[in-house]
Amino acid sequence: MNIVVTVKQIPDPNVAPQLDGNRLKRSGVAGVLDPGDEFGVEAGLQIAAAHGGEVTVVSMGPPQAMEAVRKALSMGAAKGMLVSDDSLAGSDALHTARVLAEAIKKNGFDLIISGVESTDGYTGVVPQMIAALLDIPMATFAKSIEINGDTVKINRQTEKGYDVVECPMPCVITVTAGVNEPRYPSFKGIVEAKKKPVDEGGSPVSGDSTSQNVESINDAPQRGAGQVVEDDGTGAAKIADFLAEAKVI
Amino acid sequence: MAKIWVFAEVEESGKVAVSALENLAKARELGDAEAVALGPGASAAVATLGEHGAKKVYVSDDAVFTDFVAQPSAFALWKLVEQHQPDMIIFGMDYDSRDIAARLAASNGSTIMGNATDVLGPDKAQTQIFGGTKIVDVALGGPNPKIVITRPKSFEASPVGGSAETEQVNVEIPDNEKKAKRVERHEEEAAGVKLEEAKVVISGGRGLLDPKNFELLEQISKAVPNSAVGATRAVVDAGWVPYSMQVGQTGKTVKPDVYIAAGISGASQHQVGMKESKRIVAINKDPEAPIFQISDLGIVGDTMKVLPALIEELNKRKG
Predict the structure, then answer these.
(1) In degrees rounded to 5, what are phi and psi of residue B284?
(2) What is the full per-residue pLDDT of chain A (249 aa) written as tens digits?
(3) Under DSSP, is residue B298 helix (H, G, I), strand (E, B) or coil?
(4) C-alpha angle B5-B7-B8 in degrees, rounded to nearest 5
(5) Is the preceding peptide bond at B145 cis, omega within 30 degrees of 0?
(6) CA–CA separation, A146 and A136 (whole Å)
(7) In sequence order, what are the beta bridge partners of A55?
(8) Are B56 and B165 in contact (CB under 8 A)?
(9) Which of A155, A172, A224, B319 could form a disulfide with A162 if both were Cys (CB 3.0 to 4.6 A apart)?
(10) Nearest CB to A228: which of B225, B278, B300?
(11) The pLDDT of residue A12
(12) Distance CA A70, CA A141 (A)
């Protein structure tokens, strides 16, 4: 099976984010493979191990995003694709999906796996857009995945619980955090990843890279910190007083 | 007048998703508000949608819209867009809505603005970044309709007492759009007060050390009327408690009278879902925890000592 997993490099979520003009500062900031994408890579590797085939990771981003691609390769993906071009900086979700869909088409696919949303942008629409652009169905918000022949069966997160959804391949699956336990790259994996092929021949596709224009960025009104006290044994009583004052008890 | 559509998820009973009613409150401010409701219950939902300001509702009760996930709705919307040319469509952040919005946007070539916290006009929306510390105004270009997905509780739902005209949707859904089939539904709705509607929310994080300590939060909840228990993404991902309890960016958004954060550091991921609470109480052993910067009352101490003492205190005061 030809499994494609989309991955993204994001600024280290443990470092306070900064602005570069009207965009999220990415250059000079330590980048990591989006933790949400690790679940996608793991899902792809498990399916390939159980049903045969290999995993290709596809990414769009600045040249430094290669680190994220290599991380996915070190987990066990067979090869990578990175589409990198200055004109793609600041792309909106639709254009990102166009670029990724084109790269995926070039690679070929039976199954495309993505995280539900990125941990820096949280828009959570690119995978569904890729499905629409490739004119294939999608099984989204998967909490678990089962492959039966040519059909994908997932438990799909809902507001009230979950639905069981069956979807024929080829299709896009988006996976929630917790769908599996992503593996740590082994030392051998890290060494081998350096030799695995990464196609950097992808190019921008036609269309505006974004239809969104940031007009202003302002500080949100901050709620001030109130009273912060060391618990001297009366902390619980202070909370109870506070609740009584707020008239909720 | 701009034509602003609101996509309304409906249940078979005709109950309308809260997000749609919230979005209608904004849509009717911006122009002529109309709604689209697809699937069983759509016709029964027209009255409610009208009361909340929709002048017209495009409906189909066809089960194809619920039997198959997202694709039929996205396809029907796309055809409706061609016919009626709305300037903007506003969706809630519900699961089906997100899938439908994304597919529609790609088919139509529309730009899509996710996580909107306000809609400023038929081609302008607002979002918050960096855990809600910065407000960003974004102009939306490209083909109409502009597509916006709003965060829950961005607007207050309020009926205005109108009534809506009904227009039947007659779009033939091709077989190619009937692929992802919903074969079973499982509802695990917890008993008691809903998290989003509770007056007091008591949430726990890693600082509770062990899943079984969530029992302490349940006991506090028992002692506080109209309260519910929430959790951080970290403990949900770790499998301590179900996803339905998650508060934050990828979980629920709550705005209770009092939010109690127990053993929660206050990552921006979490703050986005609770920082609009009227009052915030935090208990954490780390005085540098970001949660204290937004708390009205912060207790620096051992969460596992404070919580049992609080249960005792509340029960004592109850008499």
Answers:
(1) -160, 145
(2) 999 999 999 988 777 888 888 888 877 788 999 999 999 999 999 999 999 999 999 999 999 999 999 999 999 999 999 999 999 988 999 999 999 999 999 999 999 999 999 888 888 999 999 999 999 999 999 999 999 999 999 999 988 889 999 999 999 999 998 899 999 999 999 999 999 999 998 777 988 999 999 999 999 888 777 899 999 999 999 999 999 999 999
(3) strand
(4) 130
(5) yes
(6) 19
(7) A3
(8) yes
(9) A155
(10) B300
(11) 86
(12) 26
Q: Please tell me the distance in Å from B137's CA to the nearest CA on chain A.
A: 5
Task: Give every CB contact of residue B221 below 8 A, 6+ residues apart in sequence.
Answer: B192, B200, B202, B227, B228, B229
The yes-or-no verdict on residue B319 having pLDDT over 80 is no
Residue identified by tokens 């950097």 is A200
On chain B, the residues whose CB falls within 8 A of the CB of A29 are none
Residue A211 has its nearest CB partner, among B141, B292, B307, at B141
**Would you say B138 and A213 are in contact if contact means Cβ atoms under 8 Å apart?**
yes
User: CA B129, B130, B131, B133: dihedral to nearest 10 degrees?
Assistant: -80
Q: What is the ipTM of this complex?
A: 0.94
Are B82 and B58 in contact by the 8 Å Cβ rule? The answer is no
Radius of gyration, alpha carbons of chain B: 21
A209/A224 Cα distance (integer angstroms): 39
Side chain identity at residue B308, one-letter code: P
pLDDT in tens, B240-283: 998 889 999 888 999 999 999 999 999 988 999 999 999 999 99
Q: Nearest chain A Cα to B286, which residue?
A: A230
pLDDT of residue B190: 67
Residue type, B219: Q
Q: In DSSP terms, which residues pair with B282 in a beta bridge?
A: B261, B298
- The set of residues, in sequence order, having a beta carbon less than 8 Å from that of B127 and lying 6+ positions away, is B113, B114, B115, B116, B117, B135, B136, B138
Give the H or E element holding residue B309. helix B303-318
Neighboring chain B residues of A222 at a CB cutoff of 8 Å: 133
